[in-house]
Amino acid sequence: PPRIHNLRILLENSSLVLSEDQLSFLNQLNTFQIEGRYPDYQRKVYRAATPTLVEEFILKSKTLKKCILEKLV
């Protein structure tokens, strides 16, 4: 894969097909992943990452990971 951190671009460069809900979640994850890499945005990310949101993201991430792994096999 290319050396990039944009999850949406990585998906677009693959043959994987995800549902609209999964794409929407991937975009949310992408925002946190990219903004969290830059010091200017870290405070914004920390404020947005409430315990409830983080728990939801963890659960959805596990589900998405399982789906992607199943599609790769």
Map the helices and strands.
Elements (H helix, E strand, L loop, with lengths): L6 H6 L7 H16 L3 H10 L2 H22 L1
In short:
The chain has 73 residues and is mainly alpha-helical.
Account of the 3D structure:
The model has no long low-confidence stretch (mean pLDDT 86). The protein is built from four helices and no strands. The two termini are 17 Å apart. With 73 residues, it is mostly helical.
**Total number of helices:** 4
**General form:** globular
Secondary structural class: mainly alpha
pLDDT averaged over residues = 86
How many strands, what sense, and barrel or not for the largest sheet? Answer: none
Q: What value does the Rg take, in angstroms? A: 13 Å
Helix content: over 70%
List low-pLDDT spans.
none
Strand content: under 5%
The separation of the N and C termini measures 17 Å
Order of helices and strands: HHHH
Number of strands: 0
List keywords for this structure.
73 residues
